[in-house]
Specification:
five-stranded parallel beta sheet; Alpha-Beta Plaits; 540 residues; single chain; 11 strands; six-stranded mixed beta sheet
């Protein structure tokens, strides 16, 4: 309800105004009155009315002086002058003080109602704008971890907005200007075990992989960031001090890569390939190191000693563009195309494909085998992106059909047409249910679960955080992850519990509490349901 205060030295005016204002109709209430500007100032400070109706000529302090003092104190309500004087100078001063309206006594009831209605409407619109602003600020704050994660991914793949090329870095990354930079690419080997993983399972393994990589990286003493790519790839971005000895740094990176491979095999029973890009002096060159890291993996340049899938980038002539060298920036292509597919931007996806194919046509040594490999990589990325927005690629295209088509690609123009045809079918599919707002909401939820799984998280709580109704959010989450919210949360907790139990540093009840369960029998029941064995059996 709006509050209205009246300041006038004529008691009859005060009483008449209080009777004349249609309080109920305006959804307003009387907030008090005063007989002079000084008392009016104290009244306004005390009750903070939304609207002030005031005279000009009053004892002790006149109305204009009172208004000026209120403006200095940043009073944000509406002020209406009701005066027996219509002098131009008063009106000019009132305008300077941002008065909402200037009325002359006597005033008719229709005019009074119209002026008050206008002032209250303006207040309502201003309040709505403030609420929208506050809601947006709150959303940005809640999405900050997600936005930060996406920013690092863009910096690593070279898809940052052009304004960053010469502009200032965001505050958390300003230290990049003082360091050197090196990218380690990580790729899951699609062996028998990896092939058995469903995409929802792979989301859980990504969480575990991230934890392991960050823990190993922390042991290097170097500053670092970790970023997930699309599909089964991720990167570790390291920042050595300037002037580091290249030979010693290369040895450290080899040890780091070997340790990552060992940890993935020991803890997750997964095999990974690790590619090491070259050291870069400027942060704008980070995407080059990313491309080098994955090129090293794809071409198996140097490495593979003692059975390890560890590869180091071998510098090519002419800045990596020598005869038979790698095509231009495939990692950037993957990132840009994945973004367009996930948001169903067909025209943009076609444009990205055409631009990259033109670059391929300008290079020598592009073999049919490479084109088939590139098509296969992109197809895997399509499948992963569509899963994230609630679609299954196999439902649109039979597997046997795609295998035959891939084997038949031998020229760049064939690859171009094949990709464009598939993009058109995907983006026009009736199964398309995702949109960028829902994707952001689910990404935020997944990250929140992984960071707060030890707490009592509810779907209602997250619905409040992303401003989507609980029931609708449940549907969105199920469509995009293939699992209900509660099932996903439980699986995250149980996977973390398995890791803690295998470390053998905690008792079962301590593990249960560590992953968010106070009821140990209930935890044991869930654990057996999801793993097929009791926690005590795993300890043995």
């Amino acid at each position: 309800m709006w509050k209205i205060a009246i300041i006038d030295d004529d008691r009859q005016v005060l009483q008449g105004m209080k009777r004349a204002i249609p309080w109920e109709e305006l959804n307003a209430e009387w907030a008090g009155d005063a007989l002079n500007g000084a008392d009016g100032l104290e009244l306004i400070r005390r009750v903070e009315p939304d609207v002030v109706i005031t005279d000009i000529y009053m004892p002790v302090m006149n109305g204009l002086d009172m208004i000026e003092q209120l403006r200095e104190e940043e009073y944000g309500g509406k002020i209406i002058i009701l005066s027996g004087y219509s002098d131009f100078e008063y009106a000019r001063q009132a305008l300077r003080l941002h008065v909402s309206d200037y009325m002359s006594k006597p005033i008719s009831l229709p005019t009074l109602n119209s002026v008050l209605g206008k002032a209250l409407q303006e207040l309502a619109e201003e309040e709505e704008a403030r609420n929208r602003h506050n809601e947006l600020a709150d959303k940005l704050k809640r999405y900050e971890p997600f936005v930060e994660k996406e920013w690092v991914s863009s910096a690593v793949t070279g898809t940052l907005d052009r304004s960053y090329k010469s502009g200032d870095l965001p505050e958390p990354y300003q230290y990049w200007t003082e360091q050197e930079h090196l990218v380690i690419g990580i790729e899951l080997v699609r062996d028998v075990r990896a092939s058995e993983l469903s995409l929802p399972d792979w989301n859980l393994f990504r969480f575990a992989l991230r934890n392991i990589v960050c823990e190993v990286a922390q042991g290097t003493g170097l500053k670092y960031e970790y970023a997930e790519m699309h599909g089964t790839r991720s990167v570790l971005l390291l920042h050595p001090e300037r002037g580091s000895d290249p030979a010693m740094l290369a040895q450290r990176m080899d040890r780091l890569g070997t340790e990552l491979i060992d940890c993935m095999q020991s803890y997750l029973k997964l095999v990974i390939r690790v590619g090491i890009g070259s050291l870069k002096q400027e942060w704008q060159q980070i995407p080059d190191s990313t491309e080098e890291a994955f090129h090293a993996i794809e071409s198996r340049e140097i490495g593979g000693e003692n059975g390890y899938y560890l590869y180091r980038y071998a510098a090519l002539t002419d800045e990596g563009q020598g005869s038979g060298g790698p095509p231009l920036r495939p990692v950037k292509l993957y990132a840009e195309l994945a973004g367009a597919i996930k948001t169903s931007q067909e025209a943009m996806a076609h444009q990205i494909v055409s631009g990259y194919m033109e670059q391929l046509e300008g290079q020598d040594g592009i073999s049919p085998e490479y084109l088939q490999m590139l098509a296969g990589e992109l197809w895997g990325i399509f499948a992963y992106c569509l899963h994230e927005v609630g679609m299954v690629l196999d439902d649109i295209f039979p597997n046997h059909q795609i295998a035959k088509e891939l084997a038949g690609i031998s020229r760049i123009d064939q690859l171009r047409e094949w990709l464009k045809d598939k993009i058109t079918v995907i983006c026009s599919s009736r199964q398309w249910r995702g949109n960028s707002k829902h994707r952001q909401a689910v990404d935020f939820m997944i990250q929140y679960i992984h960071e707060h799984y030890t707490e009592d998280i509810t779907l209602s709580e997250l619905a409040d955080k992303v401003y989507i109704s609980r029931n609708y959010l449940a549907i969105i989450f199920k469509n995009m992850t293939g699992e209900t919210f509660n099932t996903y949360l439980t699986r995250v907790r149980i996977e973390r519990a398995k890791e803690l139990i295998m470390e053998k540093n905690m008792l079962v009840y301590e593990v249960a509490e560590q992953v968010g369960y106070r009821n140990v029998p209930y935890f044991s029941t869930l654990f057996k349901k999801y793993t097929g064995m009791n926690p005590t059996e795993l300890v043995k």
